Amino acid sequence: MESAEIESTEGKKLESAGRMPAEAFTEDRPVPLLIEPDLAFIRTIQGLGGETFKKCFQCGTCSATCPISPREDPFPRKEMAWAAWGMRGRLLRDPDIWLCHQCNDCSVRCPRTGRPGDVMAAIRRESIIEYSVPRFLARAVNSPGWAPVLLAIPAVLLGLAVGFRESIGNALGFLPSAGNRIAFAYSSMIPQWLIMIFFGFFTLLAIVALTAGLVRFWKGLKNGGQDGQEPVKGLAASLFSVAVSVLKHEHFSSCEAARPRYVSHMGMMFGFLALTLVTIWVMTARINPLITSDFVYPFNFWNPWRILANLGGLALLGGCLWMVLERLEESDGSGRSTYFDWAFLGVLSLVVVTGFISEMMHYLRLVPHRHVVYFIHLVLVFNLVIYLPYSKFARIFYRTVAMVFAESRGRQWGAAATTEDGVDSQVH
User: Fold this and answer.
1) What local confidence, expressed as pLDDT, does residue 5 receive?
2) pLDDT surpassing 90 at residue 356
3) Which domains are seen in the chain, by residue range?
């Protein structure tokens, strides 16, 4: 490891950049701060498209131009310095990494083409890997070489479940047939009860793994440099405020360089929420107190739940395609695209496409084609769910946790562009 010494008479600022306690500083003399750069971390960030941090000369344009950066200790200026110094531990405990929405206003206006948005995105990816449980699986999910193996795992597991469905059904007391409550099953080879048991079990495992990672992440945030003050707001109130902010996309909508992405993000979010709601309704049909009559599944084409699912699928697919086209343009506001981005967009798009094809073949009674497409669709859904804690999908949850943490600590993000007298101070 290489090391460098930085001297400063401003104790609090020096403390926020390192790990030294506040009481170690004095106002009458400078105190050296020993930094041990993590060279492997620097190379990783460079490999993920964040190599431009070397161009940064700390002019502060990025922080001044960001419409959502806080007035106190604004990002991403300090993160650019920490990245150049290889301060891996400090960056992975920094909630501001997640307050950034990568709108790339900062990257577009950087006078040195430093692209702070790409640097922040690369650090977020490393943060997910760092806190994931188990960590080796997170590294595999984010490595292109492991893609064939990771796709084969759900295919093999689902294939085994289908092959032994009669034995499993007899052991658990389920009939091997779909029953008279289902008019025409999507696939008689894959009964509904088997899907519920199979996906229910592995979804529970994914939830446990994700929760464990988020707990570690929360502890990391508490051990970071910004936890010097006590919470000023309760967790429940903070979570409610953040939920409203996320649903409205209010911070993302204030960005300029990537304003078109606001529409794609909204389509993806509400489309996914619609599909999730329909899935929960179907999965809980046997115990749902809101269902007072016979539950018939699959739904007919004009069933309100079927209409909601199709509209949600169209919104989700439209958002994905819009985002793919925007990234292919490689404009200044699009940001650097990595395997971390493409793997998530690819799987999510294929889930929706195979879902629509499966639905069409179901209504046309195409056998055995519908069985094959439905199997592929379920494998992709399994891939999306079981690897959720380790893919870009997990970003939704890590960002939410970081936003709740910042909200509870009174972090007034979104205030950097306004001075105390209310005058707009953005750099244009």
Assistant:
1) 38
2) yes
3) 4-131 (1.10.1060.10), 139-408 (no CATH)
